[in-house]
Design goal:
single chain, mainly alpha, Sodium/glucose cotransporter, 20 helices
């Protein structure tokens, strides 16, 4: 396939999805008149609906485009992302879902700051959230730019701008209601598309996955079925695995979804539905990756995109022709738009609800004022996503999301766990844990081969590993514990009793 070939089916699919999304946004905009509607969809989403929306938020461009590309180019090692993304869900359902719904209102900062001093905790938590959102946005925008460039021949930069502007319309006018329904539609489309593509691939091998893997080994050597081609250093492998496992419980756009349901039980049920959908999907990505390796070929995949992100669309063309390529590309585009919308909403909530309302206005802003600030923050984040997408052109999107998970696991997860389960956790401990976790992760990413060698073209890197989680997650926990013990806070200790009560019984009245 040549970049820029006209694909009528793809254009029709893109048009239909965008039209459907804008219709959803129009209906949602009529119901988005309050901060609760904008941030939390009025807490009216059912468990099944929220499960699909969670799956839609989680199954990003990294999942569909990035993992398939990593497996296609690296073989077995790509599985670390599939497994890592999936095993984070038991952590969420066991530790996070119920406390989050019972303690919070709109953002994860509500939980961390529940029994602590509001201003310092919210400033630190917003910084951590925005760092996660920024890296996650990079992956989605890179995937979108490559996809539209592949199909329509537009320049990468123009493609990134188009995605940013369409996403802006969803969030700006429809808020969480529109974002939720766009996620549900996208999740159904993505599961159906991946299932059809995996079925067509296996049909080429008499529905025998072993035959597919054997053919991959015949073409590229037995090494593609063994670890070590992509993550060759065990420290890097462990570090990446920890980040993917614990990062899920620190992703602000995922955590926000628990506020859209009416109670904690529904939150747990929605995680069960999401886990089932996501588990099935990640099993299929492995088939897609090896299918692309065998049926498309690594040279053809690299010729279109060095990061391998277009492996799944190219595979769709090989097994189903131009029409199926169009459908799969439209599904991938829907995936990117929906996730970018969820991320932007989470970032806007951090800026408006945490920083503006609780820091600058001391919690005394009106709903109308907060909504106005949230929409202004949405515009800023859309512009930021476009700029970051252009700056990180050529990176594999699954790898970039791995870095976002490292920040989430280091900055947000330790503070969330300590604030909910440790009585002696203090304001200064939370502040130090979040800021040190964020700063250390960003610093090690900057010093890693990804930035120093891949992006800046230096011959060496200051930090030898590409994934910092093994170092930064324990550091964040230790800093939070040590600082809390050094500076006890009696008020925070006393507030723990109320926190325990509310975790188990929920709010007497939702506000």
């Amino acid at each position: 396939m040549q970049n820029g070939e006209t694909n009528v089916v793809a254009m029709a699919g893109f048009g239909i999805f965008i039209a459907l999304s804008l219709v959803i946004t129009w209906f949602a905009a009529r119901r988005t008149r309050s901060t609760e509607a904008f941030y939390a969809a009025g807490r009216s989403i059912t468990g099944f609906q929220n499960g699909l929306a969670l799956a839609g938020d989680y199954m990003s461009a990294a999942s569909f485009l990035g993992i398939a590309g990593l497996v296609a180019l690296s073989g077995f090692d790509g599985l670390i992302y599939s497994i890592g993304f999936l095993v984070g869900w038991p952590v969420v359902v066991c530790l996070i879902a119920e406390p989050l719904r019972n303690l919070g209102k709109f953002t994860f900062s509500d939980v961390v700051a529940f029994r602590l001093r509001q201003v310092p905790v919210r400033v630190a938590a917003a910084a951590g959230s925005l760092a996660v959102v920024a890296f996650y946005l990079i992956a989605q925008m890179v995937g979108a730019g490559n996809l539209i460039r592949l199909l329509f021949g537009l320049s990468y930069e123009v493609a990134v701008m188009i995605v940013g502007l369409v996403m802006l319309a969803y969030v700006l006018f429809g808020g969480m209601i529109a974002t939720t329904w766009v996620q549900i539609v996208k999740a159904v489309l993505l599961l159906a598309g991946a299932f059809m593509l995996a079925t067509l691939v296996l049909a080429q091998f008499s529905f025998n996955p072993i035959a597919l893997f054997s053919e991959a080994a015949r073409q590229y050597g037995d090494g593609v079925l063994a670890p070590g081609r992509f993550v060759s250093d065990p420290v890097d492998g462990i570090s990446l695995g920890l980040a993917l496992m614990f990062g899920t419980a620190g992703l602000p756009h995922i955590l926000m979804r628990f506020y859209t349901v009416p109670d904690a039980r529904t939150a747990r049920v929605s995680v069960a539905y999401a886990t089932a959908a996501i588990g099935g999907f990640y099993l299929m990505t492995f088939v897609l990756g090896f299918g692309a390796m065998v049926l498309v070929g690594q040279p053809a995949i690299r010729s279109v995109d060095a990061g391998g992100n277009m492996a799944a669309p190219l595979l769709a063309e090989v097994v189903g022709g131009q029409a199926f390529l169009g459908f799969i590309s439209a599904v991938a585009f829907a995936t990117i738009l929906a996730v970018v919308a969820g991320l932007t909403l989470a970032g806007a909530a951090a800026l408006s609800h945490d920083i503006y309302v609780h820091v600058f206005r001391g919690g005394r802003a009106s709903e109308k004022e907060e909504l106005r600030v949230a929409r202004g923050a949405t515009i800023l984040l859309a512009l930021l996503s476009i700029a970051l997408g252009i700056a990180f052109k050529g990176q594999n999107v699954a790898y970039m999301v791995g870095l976002a998970f490292a920040i989430a696991a280091s900055a947000n997860f330790p503070a969330l766990v300590l604030s909910v389960f440790w009585r002696k956790f203090t304001t200064r401990g939370a502040q130090a844990s979040i800021l040190v976790g964020t700063a250390s992760t960003l610093a090690l990413i900057w010093m890693s081969p990804t930035i120093q060698m891949d992006l800046l073209k230096h011959s060496t890197a200051y930090f030898p590993y590409r994934n910092p989680g093994l170092f930064t997650i324990p550091l964040s926990f230790v800093v939070g514990i040590v600082v809390s013990l050094m500076a006890p806070e009696p008020a925070a200790d006393e507030g723990f009793t109320k926190l325990e009560h509310q975790i188990h019984l929920g709010e007497e009245e939702d506000d």
